[in-house]
Amino acid sequence: MLIRIGFSALAIAAVLTVRASAQSRMFGDGTCAAAAETLLEELRTPFADPNDPGLHERRVRLRGLFNGLQPSCAREMRELLGDDPGIERLSVLFHSELATSTRHELLEILDRRAASSNTEPATGDDDLPSEHQPLPAKDLPRYENAFSALRLALTDDVPPLAERRREECWLEKLARVDVDDRVIWWETICPRESMASSPFVTSCDLAFRNVSEQDLHAEIEGLDDVERVNDRLRFVQHVRSAIVFNHELGAAPARNFRLAIRQASKTVDTLDKMANAMGLGGASAMPRYYRALAGWLGERQGDVRSVLSCF
Prior knowledge:
two-stranded antiparallel ribbon, 2 strands, mainly alpha
């Protein structure tokens, strides 16, 4: 029995044999091959904890990826993935690595995109906000609801005094209309490729999404590059968007809020320790991308509107 596979599907299958750093690609780049490569890299990321916030971040990224597909590519991708595991590795990983609810949601997106005559990326008023984008003004009522629920959930488990003070400071900032809610999780920029360069970086948690050091080195030369490069590499998290996301998915909002505080604090503390441990060269001996990121974070720490001023 012959199995007919279209040209685009062959392109998808072929690209799966190519090694590339897909984790730093922009989604919805217009080519079906690149979309398949991105999906493969996402599915290869290991998660040991079912409550890991990285799982929910991945779900948002995959939702954006699939919504950005052209209808013709969505049809080919839907055929390749199938309702059950197929013979292609991408199909096998898709059905084995994703939760049932996530698979169903993504396949429904593909079905809608495949049936659509609209070549523009799909958006929906009921889509969850991306943790890597500022909270849209239209979602402020959702945020107020999620924020109130978060404050209540945090009272169920009171942390030690030092952590509680930081938590209360964040809550105070996040209640402001003009809050700067941007933070960087340490595990996102942890130097997996050169951990031995600093005694303060002994390991990186492989369960978290990580931006390649090579990409940071290639694109960040100074402070002015940080926000521009973040548009592509997405290493900055917006706390308000994350609060809405975790609340509406039921993704342990109190736990993930406290994890965000610890991760943001770890980034500030680790970069500061690295700068002070670089011998006589001081901060100038740090890799330039870490020096730029430390400078960007320092500016936020000096702004009373920023949650990072709590550190």
